[in-house]
Every structure is written in C-alpha cells, then in structure tokens.
Amino acid sequence: MSETFRNSWSGKFTSMRMFVEQGHTNKSSKRVNKLLDMVVKRIIYLVVALALACDCLIAQPTNRQERNLIAFCKLYGYIRFFHPSDEAQNVSWPKFAIYGAKEVANIQSDDVLIKKLKVLYLPLAPSMKLDFTKNHASFKQNRNQVIKPETNPIYWQHEGVKLPEFNTIYKSVRVNRRNGFQEDAQFIPLFVLKKNDKITGKLFTFKVLMRGDTTASQPSLQIGNSNGLNGVKKSDLTNVGDNYIGRKEMSYTFNGKIAKDSNMVIGLTFDGKSPISINQSQLFIDVDGKLTEQTNAIGDSESALTSFPTTKRSIIIQTTKNDAPLFLQHPELGETNMREIVPGITCSIPLVVSGSDSQTFPLGNIKLLKTLNQSIDQTIPDQIGGQSRGRLLEFRLGDVIITWNAWKHFFPYWKDASLSPDRLLHESFKRAFADKTAVDFFHTLKWMGAQLNDGHIFTSFYDKKNIEDEASAPLTFTKAKNKVLVSYILDSVLFKVLSPGDLIDSIDGMPAESFLRSREQFISGSWQWKEQKGLFTLTNGPKDSFQDFVALHDGKSVKIKIKRTLPGVEYRKGCFMLTPKLNGEIAGNCFYFNLTEDSVMHRLAQFEPRLVNAKAIIFDVRGYPSEDVYPVISHLIDKQITSASFHTPQLIYPDFEKSEYKTDSLTITPSTKKYGGKIFFLTDASAMSYAESFLGLVRDFKLGKLVGRATAGTNGNVNFISLPGGYRTSFSGMLVTNNDGSTQHLRGFVPDIWVDSTVEGIKDGRDEILDRAMQEAVK
C-alpha cells in the first residue's frame, strides 16, 4: 500500500480523535486517545493486508477471464489444425493467437463471448456453428452431402504435425487442395561467382529486398559450390539474424568471404510454406577497401559474376500441385468436430469441405477476413519475434495458446504427463497472468514443458535480457549417497579451496539438495534425466556474476564465492572428463571405444582385425553419438535383426481421437567379421534418443551387458514450436516401442550392472563405471 494511502487514512482517524476529544475532560481524553490509537493501528494493518491481498488477486485471472481464454484457445486448435477452409490459411496464426487473447480476455458474459468468438472465427471458418450447449440440437451433421461436379473433398491429414519454421520428418497436408507453398525448405540461387583469382578471399556484401507473411521462417544465406548454372551443390546453412520476414518490405544484408577453390553460388534458403517476394538483390565486392556493386550479366565469359537472370525481379515461391493423401484414413463429407469448449458453450466445425481448383466452399466473407487481418496488423506489431515481447500479457497468453494446442493435439505421451491437458492450461494461464517480465514467462514455458515429462522438451529464449544461462562456474557436480559433491574442478585456482569429492552443503544460501530440486522443477523428463541435467546446469547464471557455496573441505566448513567464467551449459556427456585414453587397447587384448566421439568409427575400422579375437570390448555410450554407430551392431549379430518401432501418429481428428500410426523400424544385417570376447556398454542418463535406439538393440537381442546407470528414457524424433517473443520449445512427436511392445519412455534402460558414484572414487578421480566394466572383462 502506498505511503499516500496510509497517510490519508491516518489523517481521517486524527480528525476523528479531535472530534471525540471535544466535550471530554483531559483524563477521559487520554483514555479515548489510547483506545483510538489501538483501533487506528488495527484498522490500518487490516487495510494494508487487504491491499496486499488485492495486489495478489490482480495477478491472477478471474474465473470469467479464464473461461473466455479457454473457449478461444480450444477453438484456435480445432480450426487451425483440423478445419480445411481456404480462409483459415489466410491469417497469421501466431499473431491471431495474441490478438484473440487480447480481444476476449475481459468480456463479461457468455452472450458477448459467443458474439466475439463468431467475429473472430467465422471469417476463417465460414461453416462453423457456435452456440449455447442447450441449443446444440440444431448442429446436425449431414452425412448425405454430395460432392458437386468439378469439386473435391478437402480435409486435413497429419503425420505428427508440420509446424512453421522447422524442417522435420513430420507432415501436414490439406488433401486435394494446393497449400500454396512448398512444404520443404528450398534454395533460391541469385548469383554465381565463378572461380577467379582476382576476387578470391575478398569480402562481399549481399543485399536483398523482400517481404512475406509473418509466419515465414528467417532467411538464411546459403553458399554452394557449382560446376555451372545447373550444378548447384548445397552446403550448410548460415543463420543470419532474428528478423521475421514481415508483410512490410525490408532490406536484409549478409556478409561473407569469397571461396578460394571453386565457383560459389549465393542465394537464400526459405521454409517454402509461407509466401516470400524477393524484389531486389545486389552483390557488392570489397575492391581495395571500397564496396563495388557487381552487375555483369549471364553469358559474359570474361566475367567473374553470373546473375540468375537479373538482379531486379520478383520471385513468388509456390506450388501448382494439389496435395495427395498421406494415408488411407479420412473423415467423411459432412463429418464435424462437435465439442463443448467450455461448460455451456458448444461448437460444431466441419472436418471436410468441398473445393474447386480456385476455392473452398462455402465461401467466406472476404470483406470480414480483410477487416480481421487489418485489425490484427494494427493491434499486434509486425515484428512479433522482437525482444522482450513476453513482458506484454497478450503475448504471454498467445504463446500459451499456441504451445498448448500443439501439445494437446500432437503429443503422444499424455498418459505419462504430470497434469491433464485441461489442468495444464488452467495453471499456465494463471502463471502467465502473474508473470511480470519476458524472463518470468520464460520460466513459465519451461514449467509447462516440465509437466509433460518429456526429455525432448527444450525451451529457449533468444533475448538480450535473458542472461540467466549465459555462463557457468568452473566446476562440475555429481551425487553420491544422495548428497551433492564436487566431481571436477575446471580452474586450477579453485584447488586451493576445493577438492573433488567435497560435499556441497549450500548454494546461494539454500541447502544444496533443495537448490538442485529448484532447478529440476523446470526440466522435463524422467527423474534420472532431471537430476543429471540439474547437476550440469547447477551453476548457470549471468556472465561474470558470483555464486556462493558452503562446502566441507578437509573436514572444515568453508564459504566460497565463485565467479561464472565459462559458457553456460545446456548438455554435457556423462563421460565428460572421464575418457581414460585414446580409443583402442586399454589392457591386455581389452579395448575401449567412446561412441560419442568424432571419428570413432574410423578408429574402430583400424582395429577391426584385432577385435575379432578380442578378450573384451567396452563401448562408451554415456552421451549422444556424433556419427552413425549402427554398424557396430552388425559386428555383434549372426542374423538380421530389426530395431525398435517408431510410431508416427496419423491424425484426422482433434484430441488424438481415433488415432492410427505409421510404423517404421531399422533392419540391420550381420557383418562377415564378428567381434569376439565379452561386450560391455557404458551408459547413464546422458544417453537419450538416438543413443537409446542403439542401446535398445543391445538390450532386445542381448548383444552385451549394460554397465552404469539408467538411460534418459526419451526417444523419437523431435518436433519444434516457434513462439512470438523470441521463445522456442519442442516435444517428442512419435511413440517408440521395444521389440516386446513395451516402452522405455521415462523408464530408460536399466543397466545389467548398476554402478553408483562413491566419495572415494570421486576423490581419486576414477571412472567407476569403466572400472566396473574392466573388472567384469578380466574375470
């Protein structure tokens, strides 16, 4: 409560006292004063308490606000992902989420809410019906509809879901309808620089003027080699900035150095799902410190430059082919998605519409759609990826709506989540209202992901104000006997005050175990992955800031302030700092190979003749393999085997209703050279995804013994969600089952030989998991 507010109340009671004192004796006046002082103090304390309580309430959505937002949110997913009208493809869905949340939040009645939802959604879904549930009998499905001549049924099919900005294995198509734009990223070549010693190694500047839809991915400069105009070979992409390509025409600039050994192609790569207009491109080369524009035309044999075919024109990226079905399952014409979006309000939305080559039916109101898009553009800034947008409530609510709908309809592991979808939405809205800054909301997004218990959920925030993970302290931690201990020291100066094996009593004034749990609450996945990631991110924080520790060193409690001088850590191999030597023989005819290192397969090939007669081979899989290691399996089998099954959801209905799956697996044939001796695989919770697919073959076909600790329990290809405000998150988009039909989601693979860290082993700097494997190898 403000000082002015407090003083005004004190003034009122002072006046009351003066009024009461009139007509009283001095003695009685003193008693009255004393009594009034007590009353005044108690009332002021009560008013202060009520004011503070009101402040807390202001930070929470009312039941009315939450009802409005839930209704808008559920319609958002149903129409964006499952209603196939052309009109629904002509809106910026990220901006619409923000705009709609702002429009409905403060509506005060269901009558007004229904009217507003119709204003928002009918321009996108002309055949949508929305009314009070008591009137839903009028929402009749017409299964007897007939496709008119020269029209086709149009409907959505999803294998997983294709989301904007990222190239994944997942697909979404409107069957029998041209989506308008290429699904896959494509390279648009703009210049070829022919090999020429005069310009080799010189700096160049490439400028391009373009515009597009705000859902378009960021442009990336691509450099490729070419043997001519028709022989472009793509190379790695280089990300060039944080700007969305908006509807407002903007100039983008890229810089680089001209290659030495070949012709060079300069162009742009886009996710072709959104329309892009390239209206002008220019190339400048630094000649004697001066940027000179290159304008030579095709066909000039003396020229170092070839353009495609001129530097000034407009390119629209689009397809002319209708999308074919991804699978056989499909909704019937007349079939609708009827749902009660909140108690008392029901929607009915067609899953199939008819369409000609030029439009879907029924036709929407073009004027209303144009008005809607204009209102969105006027209300929501074009640069929705701009920094710190998360400080705005409507951005936070919009991001919750986008994220929740992607997870709700396409995340396949809801049965293993900590909260139901509806409960998650309720809690997420509450947190979004309470957040004050963009970084606060970053924590909310991480918390949301943690409730799904999916180790593939990684949430990031690209903003200059997000400094909490930019650096880390130069030491690492592990757990032994449920205590947090120092495992490695990465700065020699710290050896004066700390040693490996020292117990950490507190961190920043909090008991070390409690501090670790405070990190784990924002990590998604199994208990073993939460703990492992919590330990290697334990010191993340702002660069050059200090972290306070209380440790038990040489039998004494010591207080240490450690500066964060190293880059922040997001992932660390379990074998970090543990590799005993180069891959190869480590004892008499016993071999060790770290499958998470680069070029390990080349090293294996060098030793192959000796491995056939080896006494023991130890493969380290404490981490993520950096290359294809499946060929190792072929040297351990006598017959062809099949990997775990990867099940990609095939969806035509919301909420995973009547879901089917596309199943894939990997077949491995035996090598003519089978490895000999005992086989061991070292593992822990840093082994996830691809590593677990590999280890699943070992476990299913008993190809060796697993030694160490449980794997992460996370597998299946990742899908990604890009969010307004600079946020990004992800999730597992498919189910994975072992050969016996079981899953290892959250469970991981439990080793045949479990090895816990010990204080003595940490102090001695031993790799206790490798030591145990060696003990077994020489038995």
Automatic annotation (TrEMBL):
Record-linked Pfam families: Peptidase_S41 (PF03572)
Biological process annotations from GO: proteolysis
All copies of domain Tail specific protease, residue ranges: 555-756
InterPro entries according to UniProt: ClpP/crotonase-like_dom_sf, Tail-specific_protease
Protein name: Tail specific protease domain-containing protein
GO molecular function, one term: serine-type peptidase activity
Transmembrane segments: none
Xref: SMART domains: TSPc
